[in-house]
Amino acid sequence: MLLVKIKKTLPRFALDVDFQALPGITGILGPSGSGKSLTLQCIAGLKNPDAGHIEVNGRVIFDREKNIRVKTRFRKAGYMFQHYALFPHLTVKQNLAFGLKGRTKKEIEEKTAAFLKKIKLEGYENCYPNELSGGQQQRVALARTLIREPDCLLLDEPFSAVDPDTKQYLMNEFLSFLKENFGGTVLLVTHNLEEANLLCDHFILYGNGKVLQAGPKQDVITRPESAVAAKIIGCRNILRVDRSWGSFCTIGGARIAVGIGKEARYLGIHAHYIEFADNADENAFDYRVTAIHQGIENCLVTVETPWFTVEAFVPPREIGSVLSGEKKLVLPKEHLMRLS
After folding, report:
1. CATH top-level class for 2-227?
2. What are phi and psi of 86, to 5 degrees?
3. Domain 237-339 superfamily per CATH
4. Which long-range contacts (CB under 8 A, 24 or more apart) does 225-230 make?
5. Which of 48, 51, 113, 187 has the most C-beta neighbours closer than 10 Å?
6. Where in the chain is the domain with CATH 2.40.50.140?
7. CB neighbour class for 187 (10 Å; exposed up to 12, middle 13-18, buried from 19)
8. What is the pTM of this model?
């Protein structure tokens, strides 16, 4: 487990975060400049927080008040950079051995041989990074990080430089390798929701240097607490509430049933939950379609009512009926999210 409670002030930015990350992969999501990478740098010891406490598996590696500041090389925090940072002048074997400085020659030989087998690159030990594919480079970078037996892994947008055609393959390979070879805590910094959804067990949402929300992935996706959090997890429809009372609210002139819950400043609903129905008694509205964007599996349809505009995903085979003007736009009450 990783416990982080730190503050770090820069000339035009302040980081103030408090969270814990369990074993498994935790994704840190948020817009650029929200402090995600800075957090990893503080955990790794590349930057020193101004205040706070960092603990890995019960071992304190930073505490400002107690003047504890474990040096980077002794923190057992494996850091993997965006572009893998393999040494171009070193072979695959030499890159792996670089993290084993101070070990005996026999131990270095045994561990590099073992990891070459794990990453299925036996026979490539004398190759240089520019002779490897992107997937092979990624495996070498991850193996170089794991060969030091870290207590936690810090991954800073490891797929950001990968073209879309190979990203899915690399993510699947990465997940498989990680599950087989590491059982500790992983922090994955990303701004890509699709990537985070595939790889992560838990989410931490960042905004302007603070933690907006944290928890199991599905809880965060289905129950974001604020409009900002909802936007980060990909909610396309965030509607400002004019008035909220009991189990109802109004948006423009539309009265919407939302069920019992906290007072809402906004309502959110994911695009795939919006329905088009012939008959509906609740939260059903006349509409007109103003735009259609054709996708592979779904069409993204922009729909305007007299009071608000939303986006909905519609299967191509149903577009005709949605355009017919014979249906109602329906916002299912059970999928409406009350947001602060």
Report:
1. alpha beta
2. -70, 145
3. Nucleic acid-binding proteins (2.40.50.140)
4. 225/339, 225/340, 226/339, 226/340, 227/265, 227/266, 227/268, 227/339, 227/340, 229/205, 229/339, 230/266, 230/268, 230/337, 230/339
5. 187
6. 237-339
7. buried
8. 0.86
Task: State how far the Cα of 259 lies from the Cα of 255, in Å rounded to an integer.
Answer: 12
Write out the residue limits of the CATH 3.40.50.300 domain(s) in the chain: 2-227
Q: Digits of tens for pLDDT over the chain (340 positions)? A: 999 999 999 999 999 999 999 999 999 999 999 999 999 999 999 999 999 999 999 999 999 999 999 999 899 999 887 667 788 999 999 999 987 878 899 999 999 998 898 888 889 889 999 998 877 888 888 888 888 889 999 999 887 766 667 777 778 878 887 888 888 999 999 888 888 998 999 999 999 999 999 999 999 999 999 999 999 999 999 999 999 888 899 998 899 999 777 788 999 999 999 999 988 889 999 999 999 998 878 999 999 999 999 999 999 999 998 998 889 999 999 999 999 9
Contact, 65 vs 137, CB < 8 A? no
HSE at residue 301, side-chain half, CA atoms within 13 A, is 26
As a whole number of angstroms, the distance between CA 258 and CA 245 comes to 10
Q: Which of 219, 263, 226, 213 is nearest to 243 (CA)?
A: 263
| Alpha helices by DSSP H, 32-99 | 36-44, 92-98
Q: CA-CA distance, 319 to 209, in Å (whole number)?
A: 42
C-beta atoms surrounding 23 within 10 Å = 15
Asked whether the CA dihedral 15, 16, 22, 25 is positive or negative, the reply is negative
DSSP H or E segment with residue 117: helix 105-118
Residues 189 and 155: beta-carbon distance below 8 Å:
yes
Length of the chain equals: 340
**Bridge partners of 59?**
56
